[in-house]
Design a protein that fits this description.
By secondary structure, the protein is α/β, with parallel strands linked by helices. Helices cover 26% and strands 21% of the residues. The chain is built from twelve helices and 16 strands. Strands 3-2-1-4-7-9-8-11-12-10 form a ten-stranded mixed beta sheet, with helices on both faces.
């Protein structure tokens, strides 16, 4: 299958998909807030410059993007509301700079639409924004529905399936109405699809669920933006669901996994770590304070006094469990509440770039390149996804498309 990879970062989707029968025919990576395009540099160093674009995707004409079977990407979580109906042209216009609408524009503009979509986002997408829980996801689902796609989704925590990091993300797959998968999904018992027969259910098994809720998406994208779930306190979208022909079926599932588990201790570079990763004695009180529980009075810049409290973090991090989620600020020597600290035979230390890569199941030194600092390498991994999740869903999508196990 021919793949276009958007918001490519340092190539997590590509690493996972190339282990199955996928060929990346075009990729795009653009970081708007930085002059030097570090992630794109790493991507080109690992996969070559050919068919890789380092331009703002919003400015790349659809005609320059080759036809493809599968569109993939981990797009940024933004406000997906639809601001206006355009009177002079077809369709609807989302807010400027919101990258979901770049995906939408490609799907809408392609005469030969990609048959499949495989996208990733933070799980709060299902319940954003706070004043209209689930509205952003409803806008997305309805926009895909309008373009002729069915969608299945699941929130997956990689650690619950034996992977080395507790990283919870929502993954969703789209099937165009011209595909056999769409037709099978249309005929299927929706609970069975979500818990046994579907692509994600085969990649990441769940315990059977008995209750399934139905949600009807009403109106065009502007109406959904203005009216969806205005009175509801909770999002109607659970951690598992599907959309087909304007109707949403959603349920809560629990992971069903009893295989091997990789833990933080398994990824450590014992004995190979240089001195700059070890915590300076003078900094230890600051680390302990930041990681510890607090109940204290604080003042704002305006002089307003308030009570501040927070619980303690595990310090140092437990080696017999999957790691906490890597964040973009993981690099650098400065003490932090959220950076990982491990106890080694030479004392307390931060994680190395290779260890962070291993927690996302990247090859060792994937992000190592002249001119790329350790702090930047940590930033890449804070933005990346767990490659093992992509690999498993990619394999099952390949099976589903080719009916290898579904005849």
């Amino acid at each position: 299958m021919k793949v276009v990879e958007l918001f490519a970062g340092v190539g997590g989707f590509r690493l996972g998909l190339e282990k199955s029968n996928y060929e990346i025919v075009w990729s795009n990576q653009w970081e708007p807030s930085t002059k030097t395009q570090h992630a794109s540099m790493v991507y080109e160093a690992r996969f070559g410059k050919e068919n890789h674009s380092n331009e703002d995707i919003a400015s790349v004409p659809t005609s320059e993007i080759p036809d493809h079977d599968l569109l993939v990407g981990g797009f940024p979580c933004q406000d997906y509301s639809v601001a206006t109906t355009l009177h002079n042209s077809k369709g609807l216009k989302g807010k400027k700079g919101v990258l979901w609408w770049s995906i939408h524009r490609i799907l809408e503009g392609k005469k030969n639409k990609p048959k499949y979509l495989f996208l990733e986002n933070v799980d709060r997408l299902l319940k954003s924004p706070a004043k209209q829980r689930g509205r952003d996801f409803a806008v997305m689902l309805q926009s895909l529905n309008d373009l002729g796609y069915a969608v299945e989704w699941r929130v997956i925590n990689a650690a619950e399936y034996g992977m080395p990091q507790r990283r919870r993300r929502v993954f969703f797959l789209g099937y165009h109405k011209s595909t056999d998968v769409y037709k099978r999904l249309k005929q299927a018992n929706k609970t069975n699809w979500l818990t046994e027969e579907g692509t994600i259910a085969n990649a990441f098994p769940v315990n059977k669920t008995n209750s399934i809720q139905e949600v009807k998406l009403k109106g065009d994208l502007v109406e959904i933006t203005n009216n969806f779930n205005k009175t509801g306190k909770l999002s109607p979208f659970q951690n598992t669901g599907l959309l087909i022909k304007g109707k949403v079926y959603t349920t809560k599932t629990e992971p069903n996994y009893d295989g091997e588990k990789v833990v933080l201790g398994d990824v450590l570079q014992n004995g190979e770590v240089t001195s700059e990763f070890f915590i300076n004695e003078n900094d230890k009180p600051k680390w302990e304070y930041l990681k510890g529980a607090k109940k204290e009075k604080r003042k704002t810049k305006d002089g307003f006094e308030y009570n501040y409290s927070e619980g303690s973090m595990i310090y140092p991090d437990a080696l017999d469990n999957a790691s906490r989620t890597i964040i973009t600020g993981e690099g650098g020597k400065s003490p932090s509440r959220f950076k990982h600290v491990v106890n080694s035979d030479r004392g307390l230390r931060r994680l190395t770039p290779i260890e962070l890569e291993r927690l996302n199941m990247f090859p060792d030194n994937h992000t190592k390149l002249d001119g790329i600092t350790d702090t930047k390498r940590a930033f890449f991994m804070g933005n990346a996804l767990v490659v093992g999740v992509i690999e498993k869903i990619g394999q099952e999508l390949h099976n589903q498309v080719n009916q290898l196990e579904y005849v």
